[in-house]
């Protein structure tokens, strides 16, 4: 037997839990064949072996981003305008972008933007200002978290929302307290109800397929080889399969079904599809519901009210909101759990995490499963009582570590600096033995994991603000959150997450030594090669 690919003369950081480091690695048929020094691995060379001289570079397992939205990201790139920071730095910038954008549209066509960051831009654009720059076009701008939409009068008219419309259940139309007039800010289900009707059902398989290659490229350049697609849309599942059939799927996809699409979930339950169904390229991870919201957008559910500057029309006091009643969600979660489809429930604030644990605990009481790995998605404000409860129930803290870096300033402004000690508390989670993989939630945050890993180690935001420094972890611990624990969160620890014989040959070759360099430079880590299934998928 000879290897198909050999990487030699490097530092192979296996992440096997034993601290094993090798000089070379051999690959055969898409899997790790052997590890060792140059001499031992060199014995596996044959006439057809591709050999890559690492020249001392470090190799790590391929990164697993265990909660992101490549399907909605693909549609954004194909159909929406990017109004995110730093391209848009202030309210006048987004108004100018909208005015320029509608000038190229047919009259009455929608202008849709994603990624707006009110905290960094100094607030939200006023409805009247959007009307001024786009009088004949409906405008829809999603805040960076996707939980708040900013619209103009034309959009309200097209959606048949009169000025005196009552708030929908689990949603809110913000209104000027002085006049009662809508400000144009739509919170949670006030936005989602419309978006599900207007856009998500209309997206085609072809549009997903058109956007996916750019999305994949953005991940691969940073060493990311596996994605868990949170709230996967039905036509995106078809697009993934088509791309694979055509040999154009360069990454591994974990499908987390969108629990809001009840027909989709019912079809999987009716066909007795369980977690793990699929193969190493496309695999069913579970089903997800979103009862909790956004801390940076001031809608996530907390026991204590938000602090700091509030938007015009925001409730006072503001404790956030939940998007389900327990009596409504608990049976859905219990049924999926009982059928073997692993459940993922979003919880961000302490009240939201308690709610998520309530419905999971009810499902476990009805149908106990020893190694269930139910996931609390995002799981931001993990106070000591919640930490103990997560451990007792055997849940996974699916931690939105990307928020710490990209949205951290808003978290500090909205909850206060002292609360950051229990926001994404990875030191405490590791010490308690709670599995806590990290994720980007992209496109809410960026696809680059290295600034996020930097934030875990240095506990700072993208502006340099301290973010609960007592919860800092080591480089190795942070990397485990994006390799071994990411694999564990998908029930795939026997196939990926570390570099060991028999596991998938998903590797990232780093330009710099992540372990020996200064921790302040982690955010600048670059990738020379990304290898998936033994093939180079990205080369710097």
Give the low-pLDDT segments: none
Biggest beta sheet attributes: 7 strands, parallel
Percent of residues in β-strands: 15-25%
CATH class of the domain at 72-200: Alpha Beta
Distance between the termini: 31 Å
| Rg result | 23 Å
Q: How much helical structure, as a percent, in the residues?
A: 25-40%
Overall geometry comes to globular
Describe the structure in your own words.
The chain has a seven-stranded parallel beta sheet with strand order 8-15-16-17-18-19-20. A six-stranded mixed beta sheet has the order 3-2-7-21-22-23, with no helix packed on it. A hairpin with a 2-residue loop joins strand 4 and strand 5. The model has no long low-confidence stretch (mean pLDDT 96). It has 19 helices and 23 strands. With 540 residues, the chain is α/β, with parallel strands linked by helices. 55% of the residues are buried. It has a domain at 72-200: Diaminopimelate Epimerase, Chain A, domain 1, CATH 3.10.310.70. Helix 2 crosses helix 8, helix 8 (205-220) crosses helix 9 and helix 11 crosses helix 12.
List the helices and strands and how they pair.
Layout: E1 5-8, E2 11-13, E3 21-22, E4 24-28, E5 31-36, H1 38-42, E6 50-53, E7 58-61, E8 63-68, H2 70-79, E9 81-82, H3 91-102, E10 111-116, H4 118-121, H5 127-133, E11 139-143, E12 148-151, H6 153-158, E13 171-175, E14 182-188, H7 189-200, H8 205-220, E15 224-232, H9 234-245, E16 252-258, H10 262-270, E17 282-289, H11 326-338, E18 343-347, H12 350-366, E19 375-378, H13 384-393, E20 396-399, H14 401-406, H15 408-415, H16 426-432, H17 450-458, H18 475-481, H19 484-489, E21 507-510, E22 527-532, E23 535-539
Parallel strand pairs: 1-6, 2-7, 8-15, 9-10, 10-11, 15-16, 16-17, 17-18, 18-19, 19-20
Antiparallel strand pairs: 1-4, 2-3, 4-5, 7-21, 11-12, 12-14, 13-14, 21-22, 22-23
Helix pairs in contact: 2-8, 8-9, 11-12, 12-13
